[in-house]
């Protein structure tokens, strides 16, 4: 059995690399944000607007509980999954290896898209503050830290070697 969850900031490459790693390892892949949007048939901006961030976090935890039941899967989590310790507990109880994909905020700011990301829609420089508040959680909750220096193939190899 191999269950892996990628954690890290918005724009760190979790979705792209989780999909690539899953293909390389012949595992299933799921993006928690996409799963959540399909499950509730609502977009993330809509949930933030109508239910606030708290409402979103509740739905996110439900989505993680659903996804953690799966086996042989790589989950790309949303950047805020570490804000609720119960999410990490759920992943661990189900045997997930948690990998922190760490990309520099300077690189993220160069190419991140903001329209579907309510927390930075008004000002993407908010990422700096968000990262400073979360960095210790990403580090504390991860089993492995992989630096993404913007070369996808290199990062994929590092990810693969860390779990193969
Ligand atoms: C969030 C990250 C987003 C999404 C939501 C909140 C966050 O996911 O879950 O906008 O709090 O960092 P990505 O990390 O996939 O962008």
TrEMBL record:
Q: Which cofactor does it need?
A: Mg(2+)
Q: Which Gene3D superfamilies match?
A: P-loop containing nucleotide triphosphate hydrolases
Catalysis performed (reactions): shikimate + ATP = 3-phosphoshikimate + ADP + H(+)
Task: Supply the PROSITE patterns for this chain.
Answer: SHIKIMATE_KINASE
InterPro entries found in the cross-reference section: P-loop_NTPase, Shikimate/glucono_kinase, Shikimate_kinase/TSH1, Shikimate_kinase_CS
Q: Which domain of life is it from?
A: Bacteria
Q: Which GO MF terms are attached to this record?
A: ATP binding; magnesium ion binding; shikimate kinase activity
Residues of the signal peptide: none
Note whether Transferase occurs among the keywords: yes
Location comes to: Cytoplasm
- What's the main place this protein lives? cytoplasm
Q: According to its UniProt entry, what is the function of this protein? A: Catalyzes the specific phosphorylation of the 3-hydroxyl group of shikimic acid using ATP as a cosubstrate.
Q: What is this protein called?
A: Shikimate kinase
- What is the species listed in this Swiss-Prot or TrEMBL entry? Dethiosulfatibacter aminovorans DSM 17477
Its lineage opens with: Bacteria, Bacillati, Bacillota, Tissierellia, Dethiosulfatibacter
Gene this chain is encoded by: aroK
